[in-house]
């Protein structure tokens, strides 16, 4: 049984990907900035890790640990616009910062030996 890492499994796109992987009999780990929802859509089947980035170019220690043992990374984090969408709630991350953070995530996946990346 393969282990996949999905960013943002508590959000719209990541949730859809995680649901499909679980339906196919896979195991799923998520990197997320959100807490597990009170009504967990996966009934505890998704292992949740905090998505934390470092200020520099090197990945944060927790980001280096999350891809361990993972076969495939499904990266939904990079999806950004050049300005906040209308009605944006919470902190907005600009595209250049999202690119820098995505590079950290991809570096961590490479160091962990992740074989495939979908974005």
From TrEMBL:
Record-given protein name: NAD-dependent epimerase/dehydratase family protein
């Amino acid at each position: 049984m393969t282990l996949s890492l999905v960013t943002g499994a508590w959000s719209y796109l990541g949730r859809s990907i995680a649901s499909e992987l679980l339906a196919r009999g896979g195991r799923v780990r998520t990197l997320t900035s959100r807490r597990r929802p009170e009504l967990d859509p996966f009934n505890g089947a998704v292992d949740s890790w905090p998505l934390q980035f470092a200020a520099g170019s090197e990945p944060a220690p927790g980001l280096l640990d999350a891809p361990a043992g993972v076969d495939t990374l499904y990266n939904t984090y990079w999806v950004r616009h050049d300005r906040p969408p209308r009605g944006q709630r919470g902190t907005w991350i600009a595209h250049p910062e999202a690119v820098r953070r995505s590079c950290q995530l991809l570096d961590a996946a490479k160091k962990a030996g992740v074989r495939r990346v979908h974005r």
